[in-house]
Amino acid sequence: MFRTIFLCAIALVALPFSGATAFEATDLAKLKAGGGCPRCDLTAADLKGMNLSGRDLQGADLSSAQLQGANLTRANLRSVKFEKADLSEAILRKAFVDGARLTGARLHGASFYKAKAGAAPPNFAGAALEGAQFYKAEFGAVDFRGARLQGASFYKANLKGADLREADLSGTSFIAANLTNADFSGATLESTMFWRATLDDTKGLEFR
Fold this sequence. Notes:
Number of domains: 1
Structural class: little secondary structure
Radius of gyration: 20 Å
CATH architecture: 3 Solenoid
Number of helices: 2
């Protein structure tokens, strides 16, 4: 009898927390059916390798979601929450990432080829972006504070006003990138490449 009461008590205590970080099943079904899912709750959803190209996900919550290898080409990711999500090797070619929040996300080898933002640059603070590609990305004053960008490439990217304080930029390439007004204070700059980059009014680049 005591054991039964004890187990019931444990179950009752656990109830408020079960599924606290889970996605809405109807939202996931909508996405898997091939449609857009603006403002959907896809928290911690398993979307590995899914083709989401061209989908409208504006304002969706994809925090802690599994998106390894997902195809988000030309997707509308405006104001999407990707905090602590895993987008390793994901394809975000020409995606619209205005106001997207990718703080603490895993983005190893992700491709942001010609991805762009509007008036609200994306936030990558504390994200793991080793080997990520940002060819001709239009991010402006993007937030990369404390991000791990070892071996990442920003060829011809627009990072005007970018915040790269305390970021690890070991082996990172900024060839021909626009880094006007960017802040590199406290960043690790071992073997970082700046060939033909625009460095007007930057901070934290003592070698200049």
